[in-house]
Write a structure and sequence with these properties.
Helices cover 40% and strands 24% of the residues. The chain contains 9 helices and 10 strands. The protein has a 5-stranded antiparallel beta sheet, covered by helices on one side. It has 232 residues and is an alpha+beta fold. The N terminus and C terminus are likely disordered. The chain starts with 5 loop residues before the first strand and ends with a helix. It comes from Pseudoduganella lurida.
């Protein structure tokens, strides 16, 4: 498989150095007709890192599927795999809409075709805070205490749970799923909830697995978009 063509984009904040890049996806992830040349990335503007996402140190990767028209512009896009953060997913779609491509060709003529691109949002790592060290070394009681602080809207606790969820902590991922499922201090987002519940369930969190099952039963369209479902 050829290496993905990578377009490097940047975003910055006065407090946090941050980078984002997008990469065109190769291979079986993109369905192409036999004899059809796929779209080739051309120019893209810089994605805007949402201020609220920076405030809570959200990062992750989102894969977008999109239709490139005969003129090389993006006609339609959708989230294939969510970053878990709707703000980052939405900003990636906005940035993608400003990209220009060399269109796919078939029989020597430009044709509309679907392809995929991944946006990776990455923050420069800072020294761990006292709360981060406490959470990382604490037991269930400590994690529940931090979750309670976050439920009360305490920003440092929300930041810590966000970072812990990105690191792969199942308890933090389950909390993040519940946050988006209920729309607590954020707009309700079933896809984000399913994404985080799926990650927590994959890490062995049974309550998250049960919550994911209930969510998928209520909204079956989410099933193919979650990590848990993709692994089945």
């Amino acid at each position: 498989m050829a290496s993905p063509t990578t377009l490097r984009l940047a975003a910055a904040s006065a407090l946090l150095a941050a980078t984002a890049h997008c990469a065109a996806q190769d291979g079986a992830q993109v369905q192409e007709k036999q004899g059809q040349a796929k779209p080739v990335p051309g120019s893209c503007g810089k994605p805007e890192w949402p201020k609220e996402a920076l405030r809570f140190e959200q990062e992750g990767e989102v894969t977008l599927g999109f239709l490139v028209g005969e003129q090389g512009t993006v006609r339609e896009s959708k989230v294939v795999t969510s970053s878990g953060f709707p703000l980052l997913d939405s900003s990636a779609r906005t940035a993608l809409g400003n990209c220009r491509f060399t269109p796919a060709t078939e029989g020597g003529k430009a044709v509309a075709a679907w392809t995929q691109m991944k946006f990776a949002w990455t923050l420069t790592k800072a020294a761990p805070t006292a709360l981060e060290r406490t959470y990382a070394t604490g037991g269930t009681d400590i994690k529940e205490m931090v979750a309670g602080m976050a439920d009360r809207g305490e920003a440092p606790a929300i930041v810590e749970l966000t970072k812990a969820a990105v690191r792969g902590d199942a308890a933090a991922q389950s909390w993040m799923g519940a946050r988006y499922a209920a729309g607590k201090d954020v707009p309700r987002d079933a896809l984000a909830a399913a994404t985080w519940y799926g990650r927590a369930a994959a890490g062995g969190d049974r309550r998250a697995a049960a919550s994911l099952a209930r969510l998928q039963e209520a909204e079956p369209s989410l099933v193919p978009a979650t990590p848990a479902a993709a692994a089945q």
